Amino acid sequence: MSKQRPYLVGITGGIGSGKSTVAKIFSILGIPVYFADDRAKWLMSHNPELKKAIEENFGAESYSSSGELNRSYLAAHVFADEEKVKIINGLVHPAVKNDFEFWAAAQNSPYVLKEAALLFETGSYTDLDKVINVSSPLKIRINRIMLRDPQRDEKQVNDIINKQLPDEEKNSKADYVIKNSDNKLLIPQVLAIHQELLQLAKN
């Protein structure tokens, strides 16, 4: 009999919302977490088909002579141009989707988490059974980002936030919302969702 695939759960949230912290709490509970943004960077340097497609679209300068991704070149020549961003996303997202499916099938767990900043923006949430959004007040998010990345000023932080879907829209699309603010404890919220997901995965 073939092994049943685990229940697939996405976890997202705007920059500075604390989604990585929430994902780590699930990880402590024994739930495998796929960090999609980190994995995308890895695939861009190690997946031969993806590397070839990036070189064909953006030139040999996309990689160093040792085969490492040339981040400064891509930042200057690709990520500053919205049309080029669409092209690179169209190459990277399918590679991440395949990688995640392969990874998820190998996990021995009732459910797995896919942590990604742009689950709703890319449409990849439609491949998942449930989605959790980590929501946090804007002021707290800005303070967190500026503490974490002191080289960014408030305008740069707001520019990044404005490129992502508003929190209200993410909350309305999500199956669960975890509120990460100074007056809400995270662990009880995570435990309640964890118990519900265990039940759903069992059924």
UniProtKB/TrEMBL annotation:
One of its GO terms (biological process) is coenzyme A biosynthetic process. Its EC number is 2.7.1.24. One of its GO terms (molecular function) is ATP binding. It is an enzyme of class 2 (transferase). InterPro entries: Depp_CoAkinase (IPR001977), P-loop_NTPase (IPR027417). Catalyzes the phosphorylation of the 3'-hydroxyl group of dephosphocoenzyme A to form coenzyme A. Pfam families: CoaE (PF01121). Keywords: ATP-binding, Coenzyme A biosynthesis, Cytoplasm, Kinase, Nucleotide-binding, Transferase. Its main location: cytoplasm. It catalyses: 3'-dephospho-CoA + ATP = ADP + CoA + H(+). It is found in: Cytoplasm. GO terms for cellular component: cytoplasm. Pathway: Cofactor biosynthesis; coenzyme A biosynthesis; CoA from (R)-pantothenate: step 5/5. ATP binds at G16, S17, G18, K19, S20, T21. It comes from Cecembia rubra. This is Dephospho-CoA kinase. HAMAP family: Dephospho_CoA_kinase. Belongs to the CoaE family.
